[in-house]
């Protein structure tokens, strides 16, 4: 049965195609009094298919709150192999400037600096993004810039297949790499760039490879940080994207003592209830981040935390 059509309450005012199947959609709400939001949050976009009915999906807001009431930006990847029979990305990529769309009126999500650590937390905010997982971090960094000017408190790591897929690269470089001694934006590509320009010493590999121990030391050097700086005493980590990026970053950073905030992961790793979290994630798909039945792997991960001096608490047998 097709889902009931939804009402359109916003207009796509601009569509910026960055690469094949990768675009920024600018959406203007009809309602001037559209609720504001905290950078890192998301809302839903919805469209009606003529036969299959309506579809709604969550999208992080890529723009900062300061662009309201004018517009919100969404950074969206066309999904080639969707799991549903009415994928929203196939409808939204058929839209052009001027087309109407449904914009969720509720703003959702706790993946914000305010909620996770508090706005006053002075530590470095290491933001790890794969593909369109950059969206919450553009919102956070643009907002910070609007309110306080240039900052070295955000370290944004962005991974994509090819240089052309690194959306917002120019803006991130301008905002975060102005101080050559403390660059704070590091893009990396995982495929051969072919004829696209990419510095011979440019970063290569998926974004989570930044956390391989040797490479992490190189990154710290390149960012003007002390060797071994990236620990929970000095930094908090925010990760956004699909399961692989989240799982690989999280498990690598256990070695540096980073404690995940997510309850299921904490319980599986025997992290005491009152131990503060220093690693947070927003997941765009629904695969489990860790295989909670794979006791051998879980024990390896616990060992990583113990080796970093984190004291775990084995739950009482039930
Ligand atoms: C809180 C939240 C925020 C999100 N923010 C964004 C965003 O800012 N930009 C964005 O592009 N997507 C975002 N997503 C994903 C988005 O909600 C949809 O799942 C995605 O656009 C696919 O929808 P679909 O209907 O076309 O495909 P579906 O038929 O629903 O297929 C779902 C499958 O698509 C794949 N997929 C989902 N997201 C991506 C992606 N970004 N890149 C590659 N493959 C993907 C996954 O494997 C997933 O299993 C977010 C998801 C959540 C939960």
In whole angstroms, the N-to-C terminal distance is 45 Å
**Model regions low in confidence, pLDDT < 50 over at least 5 residues:** none
Name the CATH homologous superfamily of the largest domain. Answer: Nucleotide-binding domain of ferredoxin-NADP reductase (FNR) module
Binned, the helix content reads: 10-25%
In this structure, how is the largest beta sheet organized? 6 strands, antiparallel
Radius of gyration: 20 Å
As for the CATH topology of the largest domain, it is Rossmann fold
Across the major sheet, the strand order is 4-3-6-1-2-5
Tally of alpha and pi helices: 8
Overall pLDDT level: 96
Write down the oligomeric state: single chain
Highest CATH level, the class of the largest domain = Alpha Beta
Number of domains: 2
Content of β-strand = 15-25%
Give the number of DSSP strands: 12
- Structural class estimated from helices and strands: alpha/beta
Bound molecules: flavin-adenine dinucleotide
Architecture per CATH nomenclature, i.e. the level-2 architecture of the largest domain: 3-Layer(aba) Sandwich
Principal-axes geometry comes out as: globular
